[in-house]
Amino acid sequence: DGGITQSPKYLFRKEGQNVTLSCEQNLNHDAMYWYRQDPGQGLRLIYYSQIVNDFQKGDIAEGYSVSREKKESFPLTVTSAQKNPTAFYLCASSKWGQGVGTGELFFGEGSRLTVL
Amino acid sequence: GENVEQHPSTLSVQEGDSAVIKCTYSDSASNYFPWYKQELGKRPQLIIDIRSNVGEKKDQRIAVTLNKTAKHFSLHITETQPEDSAVYFCAAREGNNRLAFGKGNQVVVIP
Asked: Can you list the positions of beta strands (E) in A8-105?
């Protein structure tokens, strides 16, 4: 069953701790993305990657880090430097890597992070 | 960068009526405009898209129209049904090929 899988679905973290959200896809897509969704704020781009071992900052990259060591995987680390990390995080992938947004985005089911 | 705005933020319609959501964009170089639907507790999914060389596109009960001169595009849903209740996001592909999303419209279909 092809798709994009995020884990964990729910995560709680204490202030000052880093946390890593997993995103795996078996769609053979080149491009992968991380979005943050807050009520009334839409989808804001954190980081994106068009090919393995390369990634670019999105609009709200501060306090986040990513890696793209494998085509299938694009983990997101929310660091203690992120001032307001409580949010719903969505990972997505798309078929074309030449240009971000040239193809349909396939989203994961999301990870809800709560900082206590 | 591209700025995409959606209006209205919330829309309530009686079942069977039509719903129209309008988005405006700022970058005249944008050339691709998708619409995503997110049902409660689910992931966003593409429902329709339009490229800048086309003025209108239809798919069953949904359609999208594009006015490049005015820099706005609209989603039209006819004969609304309860399963159309969701948040709808419009987006525009910027000149650097990134997708800029609007903040979303909550559509409520009243049975």
From this structure: 10-13, 19-25, 31-38, 42-51, 54-57, 64-66, 76-78, 87-94
Contacts of A99 in chain B (CB under 8 A): 97
A95 touches chain B (CB under 8 A): no
Calpha distance A9→A83 (Å, rounded): 21
Interchain contact A99–B (C-beta under 8 A) = yes
pLDDT one-digit tens code per residue, A23-75: 999 999 988 999 999 988 889 999 999 889 999 999 999 999 999 999 999 99
Chain A nearest CA to B16, separation (Å) = 27
CA-CA-CA-CA dihedral for A107, A112, A113, B3, to nearest 10 = 50
pLDDT on residue A98: 47
Q: What is the CA radius of gyration of chain B?
A: 13
What sign does the dihedral A90-A96-A98-A102 (CA atoms) show? negative
- HSE-CB of A105 using CA atoms within 13 angstroms: 37
What does DSSP say about strands A106-107 and A10-13: parallel, antiparallel, or unpaired?
unpaired
Contact: B44, A90; criterion CB under 8 Å: yes
- C-alpha–C-alpha distance, residues B101 and B104, integer Å: 8
Helices (H) and strands (E) in chain B, counts: 0, 11
